[in-house]
Amino acid sequence: MLENGFQTALPEAPHPVPERDTSEARVPLLAFVSDDDTETALRAGLLNTVDGVHVHRGTILHAIKYLAKEPTPRALVVDISGVPNPIYELDNLAAVCTPDVRVLVIGEDADVGFYRELVRNMGVAEYLHKPLTRDHVGRLFVPQIAGVTIDAATSRGGSVVAVCGARGGVGTTTIAVNLALQLAGSTRGHVALLDLHLRQGTTALMLGVKPEGGLRIALEQPERADALFLDRVAVEVDDRLRLIAADEALDGTPAPTPDGMRRVLDLLRRRFNYIVIDMPIPATLAEMQALRGARHLLAVMVPDLVSIRDAVRLRELADALGNSHTTMVLNHAGTLGGLKLPLIEQGLGSKPAVQIPELAKPLARATNLGKPALGQCAPFRKAIALLAQEVSGAPAQRKGERSLFGWRRGR
After folding, report:
1. Which CATH number fits domain 3-17+25-150: 3.50.50.60, 3.40.50.2300, 3.90.1150.10, 3.40.50.300?
2. Tens of pLDDT along 265-295?
3. How many CB atoms lie within 10 A of CB 303?
4. Closest CA to 352 of 33, 137, 187, 134
5. What pTM was computed for the model?
6. Among positive and negative, which fits the CA dihedral 269, 270, 274, 279?
7. What is residue 194's three-state secondary structure?
8. What's the CATH superfamily of 155-396?
């Protein structure tokens, strides 16, 4: 039995068990993946967190052949997609590895029983099913590679996704609204859209609904946010989507507190699978608490120099607050007079994870009609589907499911 529980091979395995490699020159992480999308997500999730990553194209079968001749890395990622008998091959893999390796597995089987077999009985450190996302890699693989046990208390509850603009007017609210709808449709989970623009929020207008009162009170006086809070303030948009927003007067002075924000998020995470926040920037201390509690930050920018500068600052702020993962979203890509992608990559230090083309006319029309842009513009729908997959790992829409827009045509 290997350290961390990775099961050794059966006696008749074709390779002898090597002696423990104590060399300081061992590769920190070796990975074998079978497709471009998985490699891209893996590299993105490991970016700036793990040094010495070596990625090869192939499956666990290639890993077995390679490690029969080469030193064992400290951590190993193997892809079992398309392998006829992955359990048997994991036994064979154990035979060519030193006992202290931490093995992480990628596959296509999303069955919970299969996951338990690998993690509990085979001793695999972690298993992720495809499609892989950088968020899943960063949240689940990186701690295992570093040898850190994830605290169940911090991972319990729904996933908070903060959508922030590098500056005003970059389309943050449009993306937040449509992302929430896409998540509700593609994951079939329960989704909350939280609009923290208490005085001039536009999420309700884009969805054609009217916000209820009570959010400001809950944020200012957390002791009043009881178990019935959500029933009073959440507006039903869809059978899977609720809007929590406010419509305070312009001469009002809302004063949310960090404790109030923490309380509201705690209540939402108990009830919903995903909480998408339309986040004001620059943020107050209370809104900083929301950023600190977010599992995923989407930094929305446009192709100009100011956006690049402020997007980098936003990423640095998220890192300082301990945010799990930041995804750069380039909106209005290809707009006339905007910066070209190579210059944007140079300024950011990496390629934006998702690019949304310039679609000013159809998006403005959807807003004025009070209808989600997902149902009005196919290119925008495709980009938001990719963004939702980045956040959740779920495919854009399961075969045979109702349309995302069924709530507008009748349920």
Report:
1. 3.40.50.2300
2. 988 888 888 999 998 887 778 888 888 888 8
3. 22
4. 134
5. 0.65
6. negative
7. strand
8. P-loop containing nucleotide triphosphate hydrolases (3.40.50.300)
